[in-house]
Amino acid sequence: MNYAALRILVMALAIAFAPLLHAQQPLPVLQGVTTSVGNINTAKLLALMNHGSPDMVLLAAHRGYWLNYPENSIIALDQAFQAGIEIIEIDLRTTSDGQLVISHDTDLVKETTGSGLISSMTLSQLQALTLRDRHGNPVSNSLNLHLLSFAETLNLLKGYSGGGHGPVIIADIKDQTPWPAYLAGVQQVAATLDTATQPAVIFKMKMSKIPSIGAVQAEAAAHPSYGHMVLTVNPEDFIGPWAPSTSNFRILTNLWETSPNFVQQFEMNTNAIGDGTAPYTAALGSFATYYEPSFYPEGVSTITIPKDPNGVPTGEPPFTNCCNLHNLTLGSPNQDLRGVLPFALYYNSSSLITSDNIAETLNFLSSQGKRNVSELQ
Q1: For the whole model, what pTM was predicted?
Q2: How do residues 339-350 score in pLDDT, each as one tens digit?
């Protein structure tokens, strides 16, 4: 073989194995994690998510471990599991051809080099686009990264699961009307995963977006062991059909308290102490929360957001930053405190914190004595 041919062969091998090499780059050493997510007892993890523990707060890697790779990409998700994180939270949307794709934003401008709405494009069109990293830079084609389908994500989970052991995926449905995506997602879980792994996929949606309490009860009766839900409670829910005093909410809490815990947990989208979620927290022994650090300001914030002729941003708010008001201190009145890490613990009632800055959150929880990972075994 001559030199030119050898050079071509070496280059071809480098391109072919680039995703594998990048996926195996060394990760920072994290404290408060398991040695292997394959050793996690999934049933114990779900029980902890449901009722909490005084010395173990669960962590969900929001959109994976996207320090160096695009959010929600296969490498970001895989690295979170490699690092020992017990849960990843992904974002789920429906394409124009009815497929489920992993994307946080309704439009493509921040996450890819494309433009337009997720809902107006087919899965194959979306997967042909180049992804951007958290700084807005297009990633190398040699990484072979694309917007993931839900099916690809389930196959990743399969590789880390077996015999009732393995991590958990929370699929946050971002569609304005999430129920059809929930039904489609449940069908994919049943078709793709074995019965021992099916409970490891949980669907998250706003409580106010549930079509009816009867719809939830029907799904709980049809597949009680999987298709479980995390329901997000917002301050404005205090007044309306899902208020704490309603029969709707009492039925949901019964599904949360009673085995098999079809309502896996409630997530409090609490902005400040004493806001509209306070009556819900008083009614629940534990709940999930979200910490939004300045490290990852609600996805890529360096991209120029397109606007219509009137100067109004097109797409879905918050467009750039959401709520990381970094100079606040715990207890500041009438302020959005979701960017303050101690607030995420909410007086030791949190069973689960979803975070973009994994290392910071783990260090904080460990310092507070909240990462006894032996409870996952």
Answers
A1: 0.85
A2: 778 888 876 689
